[in-house]
Specification:
single chain, alpha/beta, Glutamine Phosphoribosylpyrophosphate, subunit 1, domain 1, Rossmann fold, seven-stranded antiparallel beta sheet, 19 helices, 36% helix, 24% strand, globular, binds fructose -6-phosphate
Length: 607
């Protein structure tokens, strides 16, 4: 959603904060702001629009200081305007706050504070924090923050400074993520690791409810009960390159290209001596024996990975699986109890609906397992078990390498369950593992096979709508492929089960309508081909993504991509790659900022 960066140290806070905000642009990018405490007052600058607008404003007004807070916003309460941008200041202008999250009771607080004579400039929920701080401030910022925290309901990661205590910076974490970096001569706090990497590798993942009080050159952490605590300092292994474009034009294409190595790394860690080995991340044979059904719960692309996971677990481990959207699951009164395993999938581990769904599953005593790319994320801390994707930071809003690594983990999980429950024979188990290990090279070849895709992408760039069709696993891939294309190209794209076309949808096909057909499954190719014939005879332009060397496909399609060979069940890992490339090249052909599509943010921490 939004991103915050706060700094206290010997460097110019403006420079460190702007640099950190650039790394958080994937979290939101409709306005940005910064405030520093210096010479007994708070100076600030904030601007609607991209971070570059703020940077331009700062050239005219180069505010400077050694303690400061910054924010990059993705509007939730109040439009993206200068006034609604963070930081927000108290009425007397002596306290400033940046906030990521939502204050659920802000209306009540605002009414109360207005009755007491305080005023509000913005229509944000955040401004109540600044005003509450003023109400409670009596020459001790920490005390004011504590009293303010008690009044707030919701999720909030904040950086707070005071003009009266310019040698102090306070960080507060309730629900929303906040990482605290220890530098050689200073401290940096941010919503996510990429902002810290240039300055330090030593970080503390703050726990829910923590307050960090940085005073002078030392800091103290207090937990939710205001007890002094020491938190483990962890070393970040990522390279700075992993969080930068590294020569690519965009993060999305860099991340598409990283999929081969990412899958390779995941298999290296999670497969040992020819066996799936999640160590503490999975359940024992005994625990699995008590499970009679599985739910997979997630949002967006992660949910689409779940659709493939359902198929893999049902086919390989023979356990019934229901796949549900987190935002629906929570209100569907799901039929779960202590015999249910709920698998959550979340790249960020912070998605609000998924996090709340996880809590619901735990309340109902289900066993929970998380597949995530983000160690120490909120969901990682709360799930019974966690399995990691090892994909490195995913910066582009459109998820690519997180999706394919989620798929690989789901296949591994299906194998792990099936062998523990004796539902697969050795030969089949080893056969699937062997094929999985061959995938990184095949993915590497496929990401370079982009000529036909680039050509078709140019052709569809000015179309109003497009359809993906497929059956079985190819239908699951079609759903993800359609999301990818629509989110970065703004072309209305729908996925249809190929066999459903004639039940209504085919009326949308007219002369020149682009249709992308995915055909990888032996037992379904003939059937899907008949559906392709149906759309071609109504004027569709067809692009085929297929694993088959089949003259009929080449004859009927205007263009095609042939996938390298693998097991039918594993094709979703390969067939999605041309679809990701199609989305990327269509978006860039239209001149869209592909890493930051409109109206979207990377991490969705609101419900
Ligand atoms: C689309 C995309 C989103 C996310 C969804 C869940 O490309 O990235 O649909 O998959 O917002 O996010 P996580 O996986 O972080 O829970």
């Amino acid at each position: 959603m939004c991103g915050i960066v706060s700094y206290k140290g010997k460097m110019n806070a403006r420079e460190v904060i702007i640099d950190g905000l650039e790394k958080l642009e994937y979290r939101g990018y409709d306005s940005a702001g910064i405030a520093v405490a210096n010479e007994g007052e708070i100076s600030f600058e904030k601007r609607a629009g991209k971070l570059s607008n703020l940077e331009k404003a700062l050239e005219e007004n180069p505010i400077a200081g050694h303690v400061g807070i910054g924010h990059i916003r993705w509007a939730t309460h109040g439009a993206a305007t200068d006034i609604n941008s963070h930081p927000h200041l108290s009425n007397n202008g002596r306290l400033a706050v940046v906030h990521n999250g939502i204050i659920e009771n802000y209306r009540d607080l605002k009414n109360e504070l207005e009755e007491e004579g305080y005023t509000f400039k913005s229509s944000t929920d955040t401004e109540v924090i600044a005003v509450l701080l003023e109400k409670y401030y009596e020459n001790d910022l920490l005390e004011a923050v504590r009293k303010t925290r008690e009044r707030l309901v919701g999720s909030f990661a904040c950086g707070i400074i005071s003009a009266d205590e310019p040698d102090r910076l306070i960080g507060m974490r309730v629900e929303s993520p906040l990482v605290f970096g220890l530098m050689e001569d200073g401290f940096i706090m941010a919503s996510d690791i990429p902002s810290l990497l240039k300055y330090t590798r030593d970080v503390i993942y703050l726990e829910n409810g923590d307050l960090v009080d940085i005073k002078g050159s030392s800091f103290t952490i207090y937990d939710k009960d205001d007890k002094k605590v020491s938190r483990e300092v962890k070393k970040i292994e990522w390279s700075v390159d992993a969080a930068s474009k590294d020569g690519y034009d965009h993060f999305m294409i860099k991340e598409i290209n990283e999929q081969g190595p990412a899958i390779d790394e995941l298999l290296r860690v999670n497969v040992k001596n020819g066996r799936v080995d999640f160590e503490e991340g999975s359940f024992s044979r005994q625990e699995l024996s008590s499970i009679d059904r599985i739910y997979i719960v997630a949002c967006g692309t992660a949910y689409h990975a779940g659709l493939v996971g359902k198929y893999a677990i049902e086919r390989i481990a023979k356990i019934p699986v229901t796949c549900d959207l987190a935002s629906e699951f929570r209100y569907n009164n799901p039929f779960i109890d202590e015999k249910t395993l709920v698998i959550f999938i979340s790249q960020s581990g912070e998605t609000a609906d998924s996090l709340k769904a996880l809590r619901l599953a735990e309340e109902k005593k289900a066993k929970t397992l998380l597949i995530t790319n983000t160690l120490a994320s909120s969901m990682d801390r709360e799930a019974d078990k966690s399995i990691y994707c090892y994909a490195g930071p995913e910066i582009a809003v459109a998820s690519t390498k997180a999706y394919t690594t989620q798929l690989v983990n789901l296949y591994l999980l299906a194998l792990d369950f099936s062998i523990k429950l004796s539902r697969i024979d050795e030969k089949a188990y080893e056969g699937i593992l062997e094929e999985l290990k061959k995938l990184p090279k095949k993915v590497d070849t496929l990401v370079k096979d982009d000529e036909a895709i680039k050509k078709f992408a140019k052709e569809i760039a000015d179309k109003a709508s497009l359809f993906y069709i497929g059956r079985g696993l190819d239908y699951a891939t079609s759903i993800e492929a359609a999301l990818k294309l629509k989110e970065v190209s703004y072309i209305h794209t729908e996925a249809f089960a190929a066999g459903e076309l004639k039940h209504g949808t085919i009326s949308l096909i007219e002369e020149g309508t682009p249709v992308i057909a995915i055909m990888t499954q032996d037992d379904l190719v003939d059937k899907t081909l008949s559906n392709v014939e149906e759309v071609v005879s109504r004027g569709a332009r067809v692009f085929a993504i297929t694993s088959k060397d089949d003259e009929r496909i080449e004859k009927i399609s205007d263009a095609w991509i042939r996938l390298p060979q693998t097991l039918d069940i594993l094709y979703p890992i390969l067939s999605v790659i041309p679809a990701q490339l199609m989305a990327y090249y269509t978006s860039t052909a239209k001149g869209i900022d592909v890493d930051k599509p409109r109206n979207l943010a990377k991490s969705v921490t609101v419900e």
